Known about the structure:
By secondary structure, the protein is of the alpha+beta class. The model has no long low-confidence stretch (mean pLDDT 91). It has helices at 37-40, 68-79; strands spanning 2-11, 15-20, 29-32, 44-45, 49-55, 60-66, 87-92. The chain is globular and about 40 Å long.
Amino acid sequence: xxxxxxxxxxxxxxxxxxxxxxxxxxxxxxxxxxxxxxxxxxxxxxxxxxxxxxxxxxxxxxxxxxxxxxxxxxxxxxxxxxxxxxxxxxxxxx
Length: 94
């Protein structure tokens, strides 16, 4: 819960994305593509649907986000690429 600045960064693993800054006790919280909890590692996964997805890790279906690649491209176009913005404010409420 709180307000956080998100800054445009270049991640070695995920490329150009945004990082949530100054979260107490946490670092390197990125927005990126992914489908299930195991893809997250504490980051924020983007998607346009929530549905059962097959997980090789769990060898079965788990709840996850889908259409992640499209959602990530749309997110970056809205908040980064095209606008030239290098940061935005993220507000997390109850």
